[in-house]
Every structure is written in structure tokens, then in C-alpha cells.
Design goal:
Length: 260
């Protein structure tokens, strides 16, 4: 266990080791409940602060990787992270601009902004740009860990609102659909049809199942309405350079994502 040391005015002020040990134990429990190790990316250009954050988060049982470069962070994010701790003033760019680009690309890790910018306007700008939380330097390390715990708990609660199959990501709460970084606009019935398919990835759904789930009417199987909506949905999900994701299984029904 590393020592808890006080950092400069732009860093953090650490609390007692006893309290921190308890905080880290809770973080380990949350990570375990997520069924796989939570991955955290820290983007911070102060070497001593970056080292301290990496150590504290790793000791909490989370996987943490650090960088002082937004360009490198963009490359790292392609491998998927659950949470990003983001400084705003970095040598190779503005953290808020980077965050807006991250959100525009369809990537949705939790983002905790960590910065010396402390005005109300700065906080509003950070949250409006896509941050999930905002912590001003100097900060207490146990507060940082508490905020990470809160974000991960909230993410656990909302996890059921996000459906992902292959490179298709559907947000039930915001009613958005992405294929990779491309946003797909869907009319209401096709959105409901996609939800039906994505709730059972790799499974072949019969026309009867789809009619009852999406149309609440078994009689829908006697018309071509399902075939028409499936074909239109398939066309909308088509993105140049990406493989097919919605399949027709002759004589049986339809599936998304291929067999599991």
C-alpha cells in the first residue's frame, strides 16, 4: 500500500489511510459486481499527480492507464474504457474539445473532469460538453474515489438502458442508435423492432414473436408489414465498410449479430 501524500495546489489533498482503505475496498466490490475489471483512463499532464492517481485507482482494484496526451488518449479509447478522468488543460489540446469529439464519435465512457478551472461557467461548460462529473483541483483523494464509486453505481443502474450487439449500440433512455461512430436515425416502429431483436442477440426470432412483441398483434404475420420494416431497418443499419448485422434466416425468422 502506497503512502498517501499531499500534492501541490493543482493536485489533491489526501485524507487518512484508514478512510482511503475503506473507500478502495468499496470500489473493488463495485468492480467485482460489474463481472469484469473496470478500466479507467487518466489523462493528466502533471507527472506526480498522474502517478498518484494511477496508484490509488489501481490499489482500489481497478485497471488504470495514464497518459499526458490527448492524441494518445484517442488511440487508447478505441480499446474501450469504462471511465475517463480528464484534465482540461493539456499540452496538445483542449480537454473539452476532445470530450466533444469523443461524444460525437458515439463513445460513451463515464467522464470525470479534473481541473483547476473553478468558475460556475467552467463547470457548466464541462457538463454540457459531455462530462458526467466535475471535480476542481485541489481535491481530496477520498472525494475522488467517492465520485468514482458514485459514477460506477449509477452506470450499473443505467446499464440495462444500453443494448449493444456487435458494433450496434442502442440507448433506450435517449432513444439513439449508433453503428460504430455513425448515428442511425430510425422511425418509431423500426426502433421498437431493433429493440426486440437486440434484446435477444444471436437468437432467431420468428415472425410470430416479432408480431406479438412489436405490434402486439399476432395477425401482423398475415401481411408483409414485418418484411417491409425489416428490409427498411436493414438498409438504415447499412454503413459503408461495415459487415451486415441483421440477417434473414429462411423459413425461420430474423436475427441480429449472428449466432452466439
Amino acid at each position: 500500500m502506497a503512502k498517501d501524500v499531499g500534492l501541490t495546489a493543482k493536485g489533491c489533498e489526501c485524507s487518512s489511510p484508514v478512510r482511503l482503505s475503506k473507500d478502495r475496498a468499496v470500489l473493488r466490490k463495485i468492480s467485482d459486481e460489474r463481472s469484469q475489471m473496470t478500466r479507467v483512463l487518466i489523462i493528466e499532464d502533471q507527472p506526480h499527480l498522474l502517478r498518484s492517481l494511477l496508484q490509488a485507482i489501481q490499489e482500489a482494484g481497478l485497471e488504470a492507464i495514464g497518459t499526458d496526451s490527448l492524441n494518445q488518449a484517442s488511440e487508447l479509447c478505441r480499446h474501450g474504457f469504462d471511465l475517463v478522468v480528464l484534465d482540461l488543460m493539456l499540452p496538445d489540446g483542449n480537454g473539452l474539445d476532445w470530450l466533444r469529439q469523443l461524444r460525437a464519435s458515439g463513445q460513451n465512457p463515464l467522464v470525470l473532469v479534473l481541473t483547476a478551472r473553478d468558475t460556475v461557467e467552467d463547470r457548466i461548460a464541462g457538463l454540457d460538453s459531455g462530462a458526467d462529473d466535475y471535480l476542481v483541483k485541489p481535491f481530496a483523494l477520498n472525494e475522488l474515489l467517492a465520485r468514482i464509486r458514485a459514477l460506477l453505481r449509477r452506470d450499473q443502474t443505467s446499464a440495462g438502458m444500453i443494448l449493444t450487439v456487435a458494433d450496434v449500440r442502442l440507448d433506450l433512455l435517449n432513444r439513439t442508435v449508433y453503428r460504430g461512430s455513425v448515428r442511425i436515425e430510425l422511425p418509431q416502429k423500426q426502433f421498437e423492432l431493433l429493440v426486440c431483436l437486440m434484446r435477444q442477440p444471436g437468437q432467431i426470432l420468428s415472425r410470430q414473436q416479432i408480431a406479438e412483441t412489436v405490434w402486439n398483434n399476432p395477425a401482423a404475420t398475415w401481411t408483409n408489414v414485418i418484411e417491409v420494416q425489416i428490409n427498411q431497418l436493414r438498409r438504415r443499419l447499412h454503413v459503408e465498410g461495415l459487415p451486415a448485422v441483421l440477417y434473414t434466416v429462411r423459413g425461420r425468422g430474423y436475427q441480429i449479430g449472428g449466432p452466439q
